[in-house]
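Hi everyone, sorry if this is the wrong subforum. Our group has a chain we'd like a structural model of before ordering constructs, and none of us has done structure prediction before. Sequence below.
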Amino acid sequence: MSFYFQQTNNENRSIISLKSVMANTNSSNEVPSLRLYTGATIPALGLGTYSSGKYTPQQVAQALLDAASLGYRHFDCASMYANEKELGQVFAKILQTVPREELFITSKLPNDKHAEKDVIPQCQQTLSDLQLDYLDLYLVHWPFPHNPLNNDPDARDPNARPYSHEEYMETWRQMEKLVEMGLVKNIGTSNMTKQKMELLLRDCKIKPVVDQCELHVHFQQRNLINYFKDNNILPVGYCPVGRPNRPANRQSKDDTVDMEDPVIINIAKRLGINPAEVCILWIIKLGVVAIPFSAKREQYEKTIAAVKNINNSLTDDDMQQIAQIDKNCRIVKGENLLWEGAKDWHDLWDENS
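Answer:
Right subforum, don't worry. Here is the predicted structure as tokens:
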């Protein structure tokens, strides 16, 4: 199996052996893992827990419990998903039979808890909700504080403002303290741009181990992914199959459906798998972590089976074909985080400057 670095310029980025970056060599009964710069390992496939309101917290929790029985060991959680108490009940059950060190559990600092005084208590609350002694990874969910009216995460904050690096560093210093306190093993970011990350890397004491970002075949973010890799920051891709069934109020006329792309359909037919699995395998073949969400056993069972068989999946030619179908179609735009005077959602991603 080969591990791909995508080219961003005329530099010849060579394809290197996966063994040099993978923490384990893939066998027929293992999900491959990737190594963080701290030496920790993270399974390349995780189960997301954000259901966009489509499923109840109890249904998400039941899916997590069942996924663990199928071999999932990486779980991506967040306070903003409003289901951590239910997930905590499931983790307590899982830990009766699975050693804690075999699990990799992520959570995220919510946007309304960026203040210095709130970061540590919020992490402690998450640990209590999840019934854990520590987190393997804790992320700043978005680089923008957000305190909406009526605690509706989709509503606008009347006091929203542009990104402030000074304020973000106040939050990050508390994230670093969480590592020093032993409450979290690793810290990272989510939804960062290159410009914001450059500032963080300049000023931080503990560098982020990952950045969680939107990544799918119609939104490949080559420059950003390669920038993270060049700085030993592991990308973690959310929305790995796009988001074909998202609520109508979160759709735009320019959205595309990755799994309907003829290239993806043809590869899926040849391999005898479904298009969603092709999209997820593509991410992992890039050396990136994929965190799809599903509450349907048939889907998450087939996904883990496909990933365990990744050595016999996408060819070099498949990867090259997929590289040609990028449509720069961002799904998660973050409009609710905009401030008065912002031009449009591109301002959030430093694309209007």
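For your construct planning: The CA atoms of residues 34 and 323 lie 22 Å apart. The radius of gyration is 19 Å.
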